[in-house]
Design a protein that fits this description.
The complex is a heterodimer of chains A (331) and B (308). In chain A, 31% of the residues lie in helices and 24% in strands. Chain A is α/β, with parallel strands linked by helices. In chain A, the strands form two sheets. An eight-stranded mixed beta sheet of chain A has the order 6-7-8-3-9-10-12-11, with helices on both faces. Chain B is mainly α and 308 residues long. Chain B starts with a helix and ends with a helix. Classes of the chains: A alpha/beta (331), B mainly alpha (308).
Chain lengths: 331, 308
């Protein structure tokens, strides 16, 4: 797994991933043919409404899904290796941490409350960088410095409850970076933060991408954040991929009706509440998903065929994929 | 302690909450200070702590505190009423009751601690395994717990001590086998709730192994609950061992043990009640001390559950 991937080459490729959860109420078809490629050195945004399968996709990548999840097809290729084929032990030793790591939505509960943060970062360092304890303690300070935390010596002796949310989230990143992973999955990392702290945090991520060629899969439903830091964006709806495009194309020229709706429903600062558009209807329950294209019940462009057959992802221009029969009509 | 009691010690809910917020506002207040602050507010808990500290001091300095040799018999002065020389009277062979009670403190605390240590290590280990691995492992361990819970406690303890012979250690094993279930149940439950925390997911995301997750994440986070269970199980351990002792199992004469003293005293209850009364009082006070202290600790460590 030591091989290098050049910047711009695919690092993580999820191909036609189908996944379901067995629940007491029945089978939930959480993912229905998800395609996603994260390239080396890019920040890839994964957006969509709550419950559309964003987090499930990321947890599946790390093999951290609950026991009731069943993979029904597809593959998750990381540097060409199918992660779905690996055993739990191999995932733990070879992938989690040293190749792919993850930070979660709520920084206040993501750190172990009984150890000071220096101790926790040292744990990552001891796992992946060095076995020497003194060396590790020294490295803790440089890791904290790397995420732009002021006064690392002081911070490293603090317990999680003594830090603010933004600081904790940066400590989380420091902990993940200390594993020296190549891919960072960030699951709504700024949702619980103040707007001003959000900006600082996003700056840190952006710098890490530029300085260290870190790849980031950034899961969010915050369109403002997406436009701020992402290079490429994938829009998900009801466990299916709706559209993938680079961030400028998507914001200027969304081709999937859902992507369009999502972008136009972002309230502008100067806009009055009556002016902005909303998408009619609600997110489908995936226990009995709509047939064909899952968006068709809410789609203004929907025709008969949308109910019958799921549209495949189609490359309408270079690196711009859309799963819609009538993308040409969307404007 | 019933609800009414607790209410009066904690004041109204809002009052506690606002004090709580005040506490949080003082930035440099550490977790330990906060716990101590809440503990202090509970007067009974302070009484309990006071009793326990006194008992520990008595146990350590027994030879210096006791007015007489607890083993020296004096057939001229058997079953004497309390006097200046013998403040709690003498027993059936003329030994000083007070001195024997003082030395008995050592035995009682020693047995109690050992029982809690033995049952705690069995229970916590099995609880951690059940909670961490879940599935059939959990099923098997919890059914064993259920089985132990369904035994009639005293008969079970009697059977074990009889099978293992006399002396202190059979009692420790017998009582330990009864109360380990509580440790296992609480530990398992706490592990299940800690398991839901995001920091466990984070730990898995950096590739921590199971052993580390148990030792670095589960164990330290559930430790407060285990300490509480230990202080609450301690009086149970004392009572069970005293009961077995009363029935003639455990520490043998002439060792000064409280259970045995109650038994001797009860034989002459009608015309010489002092021995039984003082020995029983020693047991009652010790058990109450641990109970008060355990309740206080539980409330102090978990203000949400403790307040209700």
């Amino acid at each position: 797994m030591a091989e290098k991937v050049a910047v711009g080459e695919p690092l993580l490729e999820i191909k036609d991933l189908k996944l379901e959860f067995i629940t007491e109420e029945g089978t939930v078809e959480a993912l229905d043919g998800v395609n996603l490629t994260v390239k080396k050195g890019e920040i890839h945004g994964l957006i969509g409404e709550t419950g559309c399968g964003k987090s499930v996709t990321s947890l599946a990548t790390l093999g951290l899904l609950d026991n009731n999840a069943r993979v029904r097809g597809g593959e998750i290729l990381y540097k060409g290796i199918d992660l779905l084929e690996l055993k739990e032990e191999e995932l733990r030793k070879g992938i989690r941490g040293n190749e792919i790591s993850m930070i979660f939505q709520n920084p206040s509960t993501s750190l172990n409350p009984v150890y000071d943060v220096g101790n926790q970062i040292r744990e990552s360092i001891l796992l992946y960088q060095t076995k020497d304890k003194k060396e590790a303690s020294r490295l803790v300070l440089s890791e904290l410095d790397r995420v732009k935390l002021p006064d690392p010596e002081d911070i490293s002796t603090k317990f999680p409850h003594e830090l603010s949310g933004g600081m904790k989230q940066r400590v989380m990143i420091a902990m993940m970076l200390a594993c020296q992973s190549n891919l960072l999955i960030a699951d709504e990392p700024t949702t619980a933060l103040d707007v001003s702290i959000q900006a600082q945090f996003l700056k840190v991520l952006k710098e890490l991408k530029e300085r260290e060629e870190l790849s980031i899969l950034y899961i969010t439903h915050d369109m403002a954040v997406v436009s701020e830091i992402c290079d490429v964006v994938t829009v998900m709806y009801g466990g299916q991929i709706a559209e993938t495009a680079d961030v400028h194309t998507l914001f200027k020229n969304p081709s999937h009706p859902y992507a369009k709706g999502l972008i136009y429903s972002v309230p502008g600062v100067m806009q009055s509440i009556d002016d902005f558009e909303t998408i009619p209807g609600t997110v489908p329950r995936l226990i009995s998903p709509p047939s064909g294209c899952r968006f068709h019940p809410r789609c203004e462009y929907a025709k008969k065929i949308c109910q019958k057959k799921k549209p495949e992802l189609e490359e309408i221009e270079k690196d711009h994929y859309v799963a819609c029969y009538f993308w040409e009509e969307v404007e | 302690m019933d609800d009414k009691d607790e209410g009066s010690f904690f004041g109204t809910g809002t009052e506690t909450l606002s004090e709580e917020i005040e506490d949080l506002k003082k930035k440099e207040t550490s977790q330990a200070q906060l716990v101590w602050k809440r503990f202090k507010r509970n007067k009974l808990a302070l009484v309990g702590a006071g009793i326990l500290i006194t008992l520990i001091i008595i146990a350590i300095f027994a030879p210096f505190i006791a007015p007489h040799d607890p083993y020296r018999t004096n057939t001229d002065r058997i079953r004497e009423d309390p006097s200046w020389d013998h403040p709690m009277g003498t027993d059936q062979v003329g030994r000083d009751t007070l001195s024997r009670l003082i030395f008995g403190t050592r035995i009682a605390l020693f047995i109690g601690l050992l029982i809690v240590a033995v049952s705690g290590s069995i229970g916590v280990t099995l609880g951690l395994i059940a909670g961490t691995y879940g599935g059939w492992v959990d099923e098997v361990i919890m059914r064993v717990v259920d089985t132990f819970l369904s035994f009639p406690v005293l008969i079970f303890a009697l059977a074990i001590s009889v099978a293992l012979g006399t002396g202190l250690y059979p009692v420790i094993i017998a009582v330990g086998l009864i109360i380990w279930t509580e440790f296992a149940r609480v530990t398992r439950g706490e592990v299940l709730s800690v398991k839901q925390e995001t920091y466990i997911e984070s730990a898995e995301a950096i590739g921590e192994n199971k052993r580390n997750i148990i030792l670095r994440y589960f164990l330290p986070n559930i430790l407060p609950s285990i300490v509480v269970v230990a202080t609450i199980q301690m009086p149970a351990a004392l009572l069970y061992s005293a009961t077995l002792n009363f029935l003639g199992i455990g520490a043998q004469p002439p060792t000064p043990s409280w259970g045995q003293m109650v038994r001797r005293g009860s034989e002459f209850m009608q015309f010489y009640p002092y021995l039984a009364i003082f020995a029983s009082l020693a047991i009652v006070i010790t058990v109450l001390g641990f109970n008060f202290m355990g309740d206080g600790l539980r409330d102090a460590l978990d203000p949400v559950r403790g307040g209700s």
